[in-house]
Amino acid sequence: MTFLRFVRILRQVEATSSRRATVALLAEALAELPPAEIPAAVLLLQGRIAPPFTGIELGLAEIEAARALATAAQVSEETVRQQLSQLGDLGQVAEQLLPPRPGGLTLAEVHTALLAIAHEHGAGAAGRKRAALADLLRRASPEEARYLLRIATGTLRVGVGDATLLEALACALLPAGRTALPVLERAYALTSDLAYVATLAQQGEAALRDVRLQVGKPVRMMLAERLPTPEAILDRLGSHQAEYKYDGERIQVHSDGSQFVIYSRRGERVTHQFPDLLAAWQATPHLPFILEAEAVVVDPDSGALLPFQRVLNRRVKHLTPALLEAHPLKGFVFDLLHLAGEDLITLPYRERRARLEAFLPSSPRWALAAARPVASPEELTAFFTEAVQAGAEGLVCKAWEGPYTAGERSTLWIKYKGPTAGRLADTLDLVIVGAWWGRGRRGGRYGSVLLAVYNAQEDRFETISRLGAGFSDEDLRQRLPALLDPLRRQDPPPRVLAALQPDVWFEPAIVCEVQAQELTRSPLHTAGRGQLGERGLALRFPRFVRFREEKGPYEATTVEEVLALAQASGIPLQ
Ligand code: ATP
Fold first, then answer.
1. pLDDT tens-digit profile of 269-301?
2. What local confidence, expressed as pLDDT, does residue 316 receive?
3. Which residues line ligand 1 (CB under 6 A)?
4. Taking CA 22 as the corner, what is the angle to CA 18 and CA 23, rounded to the nearest 5 degrees?
5. What is the Cα–Cα distance from 203 to 238, expressed in whole angstroms?
6. Which in 102, 109, 466, 565 has the greatest CB count within 10 A?
7. Which pTM value belongs to this model?
8. Which atom of ligand 1 is least distant from the CA of 427?
9. Which domains occur in the chain, in start order?
10. Whose CA is nearest to atom 12 of ligand 1?
11. Where are the beta strands (DSSP E) in 268-383?
């Protein structure tokens, strides 16, 4: 496929707000592609050149891309900089500066060239990357260049979720079409690799069904539901096992028997953030495994659990020995998904836990998640109190017979964070889609933001709250502009459903955690409109808690979850 054709498809997708129409558009485009180009197309549709777990990133800063553009357009860097400050988008600058010409790139060529740029390392790499990008730009039409630059700088956000892409793949590649979607979804949940799943889909359903876990490809994580009371949890699970809910960062550790890789909740490679945890195991001989744990910062002297905020202190570019010592981590392991060639995810929790207890290599840096069998609300409450006193956030209650349901929020795990007097049973993780300018002390800055939940069925974001309370001065002065300015756009993003009109719109990307007192119904918000009609769900007295950098927009709280919360809080839904 020519790159121009691909760009035209991207344009159409970007302008489409209906999920059904997007699936049809993508399926048509995928069916048109030669089989060998489908994996590259799937990646580029997500604005990527390789899956996130590979750690392969283009790594081109805007300033470097701007210099490449200056070379390709034969203008000074100053000219590019000036235009950039006027237009705010390097892609648009390219469209203006490059001479009109037809362009002759193919999709495969662009993907291969961008991968080669990503692989440039060592002395002089920056110069070579720039030169290679300038070379591509010289061969591109202005329209192609606009998209090339957005991909190169990691700012192409077409707004298509994985679920929509999977559905399009099913429609385009499998004879059974949409009905075969669960098979594709499972293969994706086990490997997090859309390009690989696309390749398998071309071989047919049987190839997809044969997918096994692979050390080196993250399993999409199983998530927990929430219920408000110990009684409700016992009603749902009966006798079960409760574990401490540690308040740290979830990690998935893969080992092939000698080398370790750690993946974040979003399936990104984050091994470099945990050298101390891995050092503790490096010397221990062990079998290949995949396990999950919560990494928590502990007090260097007492070993007590410290709050999540302390994990953030370690998220710096260069972890120095002093930082590692000041914020030592401990990994609390709670699941074993694979051991020595055997996939364990279909086994009941009871057996996985027993296998984990027998397997876990001992080390002062690692421990089993504290767990206790629970048969009554009183026992659950007593264990909850103990957990909170030990510095945990609450409990995760697990059905004895539950398999590990990759990529799903499941009723087999239920989180409990304690009694909820005067506030909602849990915080919500919401996506910022717009903002209003502040007044008075907040003048000239974003003063409040418009927040949305994710509707996975429709692959769109529906608003639930306007939020101004809880931001610190530093958030308002620095963090909000730094996070949001690059995401600004003039018109509402097509996949945002809003009734309010903020001063500024943003691409949905930034997630923040919000505590509220309760849920109500409001004509100003659109969350749950599909189910509820004109008055969507809204938050009362929302308050900012923290940014959730480890979550992307598709990991935000979903419409189904707020509907369940509303039901649990007795809000009339009719
Ligand atoms: P929250 O915002 O409440 O931390 P979340 O949206 O990040 O939740 P959920 O799946 O809803 O994720 O809640 C379970 C989370 O709790 C897991 O993602 C994991 O990070 C953390 N956790 C801590 N201890 C455990 C445990 N023993 N078993 C499972 N998950 C645990």
1. 999 999 989 988 887 778 899 999 999 999 888
2. 67
3. 223-224, 243-246, 250, 294, 334, 369, 396, 415
4. 120
5. 43
6. 565
7. 0.89
8. 2
9. 223-416 (3.30.470.30), 428-568 (2.40.50.140)
10. 223
11. 289-297, 329-339, 342-343, 366-368, 371-374
